[in-house]
Design a protein that fits this description.
six-stranded antiparallel β-sheet; about 0% helix; mainly beta
């Protein structure tokens, strides 16, 4: 996944701003199936509550809102 309006790839550990006002750290990349140490429990193939699986996008840990699953289609993400 790339930063909004950019060809720069978002990497694990990057500090980001989501939708212009929420800051956090990228802890999982579901497209490459990788995560920071300590976040392995997010990489599961089990069906989620309500159906579906986390197979795309990234997981960002924020102070304001907790964990956010972000995809390119619905989120503006910029590097700090």
């Amino acid at each position: 996944m790339n930063y909004s309006k950019s060809s720069v790839k978002i990497e694990l550990g990057d500090k980001v701003i989501i939708d212009f006002d929420t800051t956090g750290v990228v802890v999982c990349d579901f497209e490459s199936w990788t995560c920071l140490d300590g976040y392995e429990t997010w990489l599961v193939k089990d069906e989620l509550v309500g159906g579906g699986y986390l197979t795309s996008g990234i997981m960002v840990k924020t102070e304001e809102l907790g964990f956010l699953h972000c995809t390119e289609e619905n989120t503006t993400i910029q590097a700090i």
